[in-house]
């Protein structure tokens, strides 16, 4: 199955707060994409427009090249990825590039949600989306960690 990619559009959905052991089917890629779109539309105006230019992609698992680039062996360890050139590094001298993309990986996010058991799924999807967009805007993981206490 090919990953689902799209450009963000306006939309609103409710929060997914089912407990992981509720017996209901896990939400699919369409649910993840809707949460991603809602997050982008909720960004402050000054970053919303540049964020709308980023492709939003949902895949079941990361591609092998993504894991190799990051030195990750277990595909369930990678919940999201920013693929592109951060805005702080873009230049008119950049060569051809397919464009910036934020990837979310459904199975790793669902595994994290199940393992944590103390967070709403939509909150986790939103957190990963914001984290990956922070990379688009030029923040390192260390920069993000100084203000984001999500994993503590």
From TrEMBL:
SUPFAM superfamilies: Metalloproteases ('zincins'), catalytic domain. It comes from the Bacteria. This is Neutral zinc metallopeptidase. It comes from Primorskyibacter flagellatus.
